[in-house]
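[agent] plan:
  1. take the single chain provided in the ticket
  2. run structure prediction with default settings
  3. attach structure tokens to the ticket
  4. add a short note for the reviewer (M.T.)
[agent] executing step 1
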Amino acid sequence: MAFGGDFDNQDEVISEINMTPLVDVMLVLLIIFIITVPVLTHSVQVDLPRASNSPSETKPSTIQLAVNAKGEVFWNEQKVSEAELAGKLQAAAGAKPQPEIHLRGDRTVAYEHVVKTMAAVQNAGLLKLGFVTEPTQ
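[agent] step 2 finished; step 3 output follows
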């Protein structure tokens, strides 16, 4: 009477995994980590100088453009003509950093007037254009 199966027959494949080499490797790795971790935490104590370093970010200014129901354009609440608008936009495009343009259009204004204003901003070379709307209640 044999216990543990019939291993005399060489035609069958043994389907058991030998765990001894795996356990040996894991124990060696554990010992290596236990030894190297304290070495990594030690460092040379150096008294470093202290300096305050605050970034000097210059925030771009904001220009409010508004187009009323009649198609008139307002630059920061001051009415401007198309020629004045183009000149002011060219001057603003040359500033560093470029200002942000906030465009507000009246609800009843013709779409053409808002598009002309947007085209003037784009032709001047300004990159930041945003629309201002009222939140719905």
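[agent] step 4 note for reviewer: The CA atoms of residues 21 and 27 lie 10 Å apart.
[agent] ticket updated
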